[in-house]
Amino acid sequence: MKMYPAKNENGNVLICVLGVILVLSIIGATVLRNSTTRLNVSSKQVRAWKEALSAAEAGGDMAFAELRKQFSTDSSVRASQWSGWTKSGTTYVSPESTFGSSNLKSRTVVEICYFDVSGNFHLGANPDPNANSWYRVRSRGVSTLLGLKRTGMDDALMNEGRTHFAAFGSTAMKDITARGNGDSLLRKVDFKYDHFVATYGGSWDDPLTTRNDPVALGAPQISRRIEQVITPLTPFFDAAIKTAGIFYGLGSAAQIDSYDSRQGPYAFVANSPSDPRYINSRHGNVEIGSSTATVKGMIYGDVATNGGTIVNSSQITGTVDNNVPFTLNDYKMPDVTSWQYEPPPASGNGLAYQLASSFSGNKSLTPRYAGTANAPVYYLVSSFSGALNIHPTAAATDTYMAIHVTGDISGNSTGITVNPYVHVKIYFDRDINVKSNNLINQNPTVTNPMAANLQFYGISPPRDANGNLTWTQTINLNSATPSTLAMTFYAPSADISLNGNPDFIGTMVCKSFYANGNVSWHYDRALNSEGQLLDVRIASYVEDTR
Amino acid sequence: MSRPGLRQVESGFTLAELLIAIAIGLSVLAVTFTSAVALQKSFSAVDNYFGAHMQQIRIVDYLARDVRRGLSVTSSTDKQTVTVKIPKYIIQAGDSDATVSNIGTPRSPSLAIASGDYNINYGTATSTVTTVVYSVNGSSILRTEDGELTTIASSTDILLPETLDIELANTEYTTTAITFQPISVADRSGTVVYSTAYLRNRRRSF
Q1: Which domain holds residue A180?
Q2: Which of A164, A235, A358, A487 could form a disulfide with A454 if both were Cys (CB 3.0 to 4.6 A apart)?
Q3: Closest to A329 (Cα-Cα) out of A530, A510, A492, A512
Q4: Cβ A227–B8 below 8 Å, yes or no?
Q5: Is pLDDT of A7 > 80?
């Protein structure tokens, strides 16, 4: 006898099993979905957001490295500056760089800029030929989000009228007001288009429009943008006198104050708060890098020492800080390969544009080239013991020249006269010993000479195996008929001695400083960005969080 | 005509078999239901945990972003209120220099010299910084930017951020530790997230 099972009775078990599987599957799917979303946010989006900033900062670093190539001792490195970048006028745009295991991308824009006497920002080259440039660096970093297009779990879109930047209803920044309180307000994930470019255009990222944004994205991404302002490091920044070692001076009836030659000739306004020039009158700062400091006279500015015992008094209008250590690096002769070298004559004083290699006597020098601030007409002499009167190459033509003196600059009648339109830099390896009134700066005028038009740079002596300088460099500016001196000295390895009671416009940076006269010293604030460019550094960092 | 074998095929379970089958079935359903509830609770707890964790990260990221671009940071004595001064980079509605066309655009910087150093400023003549305040309000973490309030985190797990600012010669950094109290475990230990952020700008005094 054959028996058949009742088929209808099997269905209950199957339904039960399917039901259980369904319940478990729903739970599993929910867990998986939430886990995936959490993973998207915690692993991918957070990571990409951080990496996008790294990429942006890497772009800024690359720009900084390009800027610093000009200081390299390797001529091939200097020649490679801005290689591969797109240049137009004073704007440089990098190629888009891809790097890292996540294929991060960065693009950087470097724009030459400057600040005027009022501190206002301007794009383009500084109209002051003696001044150094600033740079605005804008960099964008992008990190790609691979995988499905997912937002976070806390991204409820809002329309509550909350105004983050713009009033509700404003056409500006719609994306901001539309975002919620969650992750997308912080980490703006771009799914289809770069939200920043789509909203604000591409000029921030690329003012030369070498791209064609907005373009549809191949994959979701996060982009971040930073802006940095890079300042030139100059030798004469914000100090009338800066010495790494011992300081003595000035006379008890002396005074140090400041002015800005871009606002006109010097006038004493340090006690006139209502005068518009007053704001620039109390920066006659004295910076002393040692504890051995004897400070005399009236100082309209700050005084800083490294372990000194200077106390606040009515003789110092600014702050006194006895805990400001600093060092001055040795100064090396800058690279002259791009300068216009003018060889010496075969004998004698030569032609009007030539300078004898061993200069003495009187000479009226008129260079045959105008040169530029970055590539001046260049003379090389072994000794300097004459009176040199320098004229522009042609009437009303700015003329830039540099003289490298490998020996001493000395003698009772030794001096330099800088006539209007002449800009001179003297580089010296050894000593200076001259009468101060033989150093005459008449550019732009006799009554308003600008110190930046006569600059002295002391080349540091080489150091021995113990790190000591192999000779002592001295600068003696001897007493003479009181006069107005307008010049700068940057000689970090030199001992400076100044005698007499001259009016002095400018600044001195040295190893030690001594002056006993009742000098009337005026620091020119235009010097802040002038002088030999020593380095650059980042002065400001902001992130554009739009 | 009936066939003798059919009666045996159509015969049902005995009462005992039926009771046993029902008992087993109910047991399976009970186990399944219990497991489902347990799984759901477990998932809910884990999801809640990671939800709070994500908010920890968000708070840290917000704070780090502001500190990095900031000019100074001040934390309160109880470490739960943090004030960051950041450059006023974007022109906002209500600013003295705001116009219909420039709201939401970046400002150009300006230059001043203070304390022997360049200060790059963004903003108007009377206001160069934006004040951002992080604070705790009940179960919410608030971020206020020049008076505009954003709730950047809110959890029944009672998020508790603690931030300490350390001033150095020219810079400053913050150390932040954020904990929460999971609903499944009445203990904050093991939930802490640490973060350290440095100023990119030179520190200023305000």
Answers
A1: 34-233+538-544
A2: A487
A3: A492
A4: no
A5: no
Q: In this structure, what DSSP letter does residue A297 have?
A: S
**Within a domain: A25:** no
Kindly report the three-state secondary structure assignment for every residue of A81-112.
Answer: CCCCCEEECCEEECCCEEECCCCEEEEEEEEE
Lowest mean pLDDT among A292-301, B39-48, B86-95: B39-48
Average confidence score pLDDT of chain B? 86
C-alpha to C-alpha distance for A205 and B105, rounded to whole angstroms? 14
Tell the burial category of A125 from Cβ atoms under 10 Å away from its Cβ (0-12, 13-18, 19+).
middle
Q: Is residue A73 part of a domain?
A: yes
pLDDT at A312: 86
CB pairs under 8 A between A and B: 146
Query: Does B17 contact chain A (CB < 8 Å)?
Result: no
Q: Which two tokens stand for residue A250?
A: 């000035």
Contact by Cβ (8 Å): A423, A401: yes
Tell me the shortest Cα–Cα distance from A173 to chain B, in angstroms.
7
Averaged pLDDT of chain A: 87
Q: Domain locations in chain B?
A: 36-88+128-198
Q: Which of chain B's residues have a Cβ under 8 Å away from the Cβ of A166?
A: 92-93, 103-104
Q: How many domains does chain A have?
A: 1
**In whole angstroms, what is the distance from residue B154 CA to residue A24 CA?**
31
Task: Assess if residue A456 is contained within a domain.
Answer: no
Residue B35 zone, left/alpha/beta (φ > 0; ψ -120 to 50; rest): alpha
Please answer yes or no on whether B92 and A166 come within 8 Å at the CB atom: yes
Percentage of chain A surpassing pLDDT 90? Answer: 60
Predicted ipTM beyond 0.90: no
Cross-chain residue pair A38–B65, CB shorter than 8 Å: no
**Contact state of B89 with A153 under an 8 Å Cβ cutoff:** no
| pLDDT higher than threshold 60 for residue A247 | yes
Confirm whether A202 is domain-assigned. Answer: yes
Residue A273 banded pLDDT, cuts 50, 70, 90: very high
Contact (Cβ atoms closer than 8 angstroms) between residue A139 and residue A107: yes
Q: Choose from A77-86, A146-155, B51-60 the range with maximum mean pLDDT.
A: A77-86
Closest CA to A477 of A431, A522, A442: A431
> Given this model, what pLDDT does residue A353 score?
93
Percent of chain B, pLDDT > 70? 95
Q: State the smallest CA–CA distance between residue A144 and chain B in angstroms.
A: 19
What pLDDT score was predicted for residue A191?
85
Q: Looking at beta carbons, which residues of chain B come within 8 Å of A38? A: 47, 50-51, 54
Q: How far is CA A498 from the centre of its chain?
A: 32
Q: Chain B: nearest CA to A309, how far in angstroms?
A: 20
Q: Is residue A55 a contact partner of residue A143, using CB atoms and an 8 Å limit?
A: yes
